[in-house]
């Protein structure tokens, strides 16, 4: 260890010792003084205020500030020795039992009633009581009166605000706090990268004060100022990156694809059997104008399930074909790609059957390219694409493989963009000689702040109207564990719908035996929960039990492609009453006769997934019903999430709920890159005004100095917060 001045690059082993540095690196990915200084507290406990123990979830890794209420020693049943049970409380009625195995009389003497401490461990449940098994702990004083106990960790918590860090079982929060103190004692921060004019205009404290106060706050006001400055740095880095990318993109060349009077698009509009909604018309004009410019369109089209995004995209594709180019639509699954192919052929009719009998004079061809095509069919399809006869090409990631060449790729439409890696999307765009126009579609509504932060370099269009004829969807939570009779009633309700001539979905989180699939949650649960229900196990039980006599089909991602297609065709034709499936039906599947969906183990799905799944019913004239079956206990966060989904069909409200429950940093691609998120403090929901202000300052700065040449420290800071990998993620997103 050293007392010499340290910088952001100083290795932690020089400051905190080899053993502690190894633990910080191995468990928390912290290697340098800068890593640790930017490892901010998750929250602050306050002396005299309690931690709400009742809000803790089973399975959660927690650190709680609590007071010892009582201790009890009893012999263990299965082996020799005693068990020490220490009941700790938060002062408001919430209690946890801390259990310690073995003869530990010294611990009983130490954990006397009245003592306050921080207790860290994983919440488990035993006989209806929440507990921590063998938790790590540090005691804060004698009898809760604030007098420091005789150990060095307590020095970290001498102030009124006690920092609680994101920690690991092997590196509890008080160890991190001690290391932070050691580092800050010698830490020399870099020169403040934020221009002085921005600091003054926005009333922001300096970086040195911010870093010290966030770890060891002298007051709530000082902590607020520190957090605001550090949040600003995160928001400003992201916005500068996005504004720079947008600035550069404006100079990229692209081939203009203006509309052509009397072409395919006009013919298509003339044969549409219904009138476009006003929203579809407005968005259509925006897209048409973008396509007519010599710079690549980069537009996000969001709209609820069934709002008519596909028709908007098809009209854009036809405009490009009219201008002599080709359009490719990338779908996340073969089921959806095949359905798009059938749906677009039906919409186009003779306009999409060039070279066939009865085709229109200026028709184009619509080709489907998937990994399951036979060799002969693949050669024929690839030739149609390479020679330009296929104006519209639909497919999965198979479109990205070598050997799929386009004559003149003018437009890329990406459906359900969140299902693709950025590298895949970029590989498709690279198949054009010049950057193609790009239209990204999603049925997962994106809160305004997320769009501003993640899609700040895209123009955004929203379809909020549903086409005429769409029916409302009622959703209800079915608490199977508390009220088994409700589940019986759910199956009877499904049979009633089938009796009326309708169809149903039953959705499970897991496929069954075999290798893990992308569409499945983890099978094993450390908290004692059973594995998620599986399609291959549930389907036969339903066939023999509550759905006996109904025609049941099975659909999941491990089926061969031709079998998947056959099942979907049979279901769409009405030859099956019930489809038992995984989330392969989440997007794009369109069977208007399906009116009821039962989602089993609904708490294993995310909010957006449930909203997408629910959109599969109510697509015809009959009302839709979605039943969310769960064993999650009333009052748990999982149950509250399901109650929220059941209470509204407003996708934007649900998207905000989804964002609240996910790590904020996921939006920056941290999950895609497998690296730690760099959005540590910024909340996309709570910091809307700050993000807006940061964007305004970023626009001003980039207009004056596009490459930040006059602000090298700021450019370096931005590069550290939003590295090249994340910058590319933002650009390609």
CATH homologous superfamily descriptor of the largest domain: P-loop containing nucleotide triphosphate hydrolases
Strand order across the biggest sheet?
A: 11-12-10-13-14-9-15
List unreliable stretches of 5+ residues. Answer: 143-155, 663-677, 729-733
Overall radius of gyration: 29 Å
Please tell me the CATH architecture of the largest domain by its name.
3-Layer(aba) Sandwich
Broad structural category:
alpha/beta
Q: What composes the largest sheet?
A: 7 strands, parallel
Arithmetic mean pLDDT: 83
Please provide the count of β strands. 21
| Count, helices | 25
Overall, the morphology is: globular
What is the straight-line distance between the termini? Answer: 44 Å
- Number of spatially distinct domains: 4
CATH class of the largest domain: Alpha Beta
CATH topology of the largest domain: Rossmann fold
Proportion in helices: 25-40%
Strand content: 15-25%
């Amino acid at each position: 260890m050293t007392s010499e001045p340290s910088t952001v690059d100083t290795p932690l082993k020089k400051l905190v010792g080899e053993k502690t540095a190894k633990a910080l690196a191995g468990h928390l990915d912290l290697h340098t003084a800068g890593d640790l200084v930017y490892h901010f507290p998750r929250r602050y406990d306050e002396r005299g205020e309690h931690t709400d123990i009742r809000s803790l979830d089973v399975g959660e890794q927690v650190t709680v500030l609590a007071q010892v209420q009582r201790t009890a020693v009893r012999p263990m049943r299965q082996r020799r020795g005693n068990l020490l049970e220490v009941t700790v409380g938060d002062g408001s009625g919430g209690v946890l039992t801390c259990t310690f195995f073995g003869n530990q009389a010294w611990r009983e003497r130490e954990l006397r009633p009245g003592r306050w401490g921080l207790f860290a461990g994983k919440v488990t449940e035993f006989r209806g009581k929440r507990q921590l098994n063998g938790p790590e702990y540090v005691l804060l004083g004698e009898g809760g009166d604030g007098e420091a106990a005789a150990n060095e960790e307590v020095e970290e918590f001498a102030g009124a605000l006690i920092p609680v860090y994101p920690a690991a079982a092997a590196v509890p929060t008080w160890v991190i706090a001690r290391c932070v103190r050691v580092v800050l004692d010698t830490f020399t921060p870099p020169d403040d990268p934020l221009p002085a004019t921005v600091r003054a205009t926005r009333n922001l404290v300096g970086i040195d004060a911010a870093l010290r106060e966030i770890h060891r706050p002298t007051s709530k006001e000082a902590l607020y100022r520190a957090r605001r400055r550090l949040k600003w740095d995160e928001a400003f880095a992201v916005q500068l990156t996005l504004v720079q990318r947008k600035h550069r993109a404006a100079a990229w060349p692209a081939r203009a694809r203006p509309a052509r009077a009397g072409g395919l698009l006009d013919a298509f509009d003339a044969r549409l059997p219904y009138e476009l909604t006003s929203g579809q018309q407005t968005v259509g004009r925006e897209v048409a104008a973008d396509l007519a410019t010599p710079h690549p369109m980069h537009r996000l089209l969001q709209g609820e399930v069934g709002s008519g995004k596909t028709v908007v995209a098809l009209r854009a594709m036809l405009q490009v074909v009219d201008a002599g180019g080709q359009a490719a639509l990338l779908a996340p699954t073969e089921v959806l790609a095949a359905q798009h192919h059938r749906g677009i052929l039906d919409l186009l009719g003779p306009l999409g059957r060039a070279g066939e009998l009865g085709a229109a004079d200026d028709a184009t061809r619509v080709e489907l390219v998937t990994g399951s095509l036979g060799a002969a069919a693949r050669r024929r399809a690839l030739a149609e694409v390479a020679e330009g006869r296929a104006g519209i090409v639909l497919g999965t990631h198979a479109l990205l493989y070598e050997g799929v060449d386009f004559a003149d790729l003018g437009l890329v439409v990406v459906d359900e963009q969140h299902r693709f890696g950025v590298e895949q999307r970029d590989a498709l765009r690279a198949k054009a000689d010049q950057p193609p126009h790009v239209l990204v579609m999603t049925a997962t509504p994106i809160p305004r702040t997320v769009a501003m932060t993640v899609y700040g370099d895209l123009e955004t269009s929203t379809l909020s109207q549903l086409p005429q004829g769409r029916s409302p969807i009622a959703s209800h939570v079915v608490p199977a564990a508390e009220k088994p009779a409700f589940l019986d009633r759910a199956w009877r309700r499904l049979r009633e719908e089938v009796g009326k001539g309708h169809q149903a979905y039953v959705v499970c989180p897991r496929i069954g035996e075999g290798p893990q699939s992308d569409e499945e949650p983890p099978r094993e649960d450390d908290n004692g929960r059973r594995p998620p229900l599986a399609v291959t196990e549930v389907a036969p039980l339903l066939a023999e039990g509550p759905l006996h006599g109904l025609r049941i089909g099975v659909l999941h991602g491990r089926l061969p492609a031709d079998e998947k297609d056959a099942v979907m065709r049979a279901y769409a034709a009405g030859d099956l009453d019930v489809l038992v499936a995984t989330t392969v039906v989440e997007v794009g599947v369109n069977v208007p006769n399906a009116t009821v969906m039962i989602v089993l183990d609904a708490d294993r799905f995310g909010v957006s997934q449930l909203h997408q799944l629910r959109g599969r019913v109510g697509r015809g004239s009959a009302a839709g019903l979605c039943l969310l079956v769960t064993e999650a206990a009333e009052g748990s966060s999982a149950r509250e999430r399901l109650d929220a989904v059941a209470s509204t069909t407003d996708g934007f409200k649900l998207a905000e709920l989804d964002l609240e429950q996910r790590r904020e940093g996921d939006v920056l691609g941290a999950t895609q890159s497998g690296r730690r998120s760099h959005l540590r403090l910024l909340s996309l929901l709570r910091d809307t005004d700050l993000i807006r202000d940061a964007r305004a300052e970023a626009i001003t700065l980039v207009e004056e100095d596009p490459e930040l040449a006059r602000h090298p420290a700021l450019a370096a800071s931005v590069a550290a917060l939003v590295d090249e990998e994340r910058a590319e993620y933002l650009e390609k997103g």
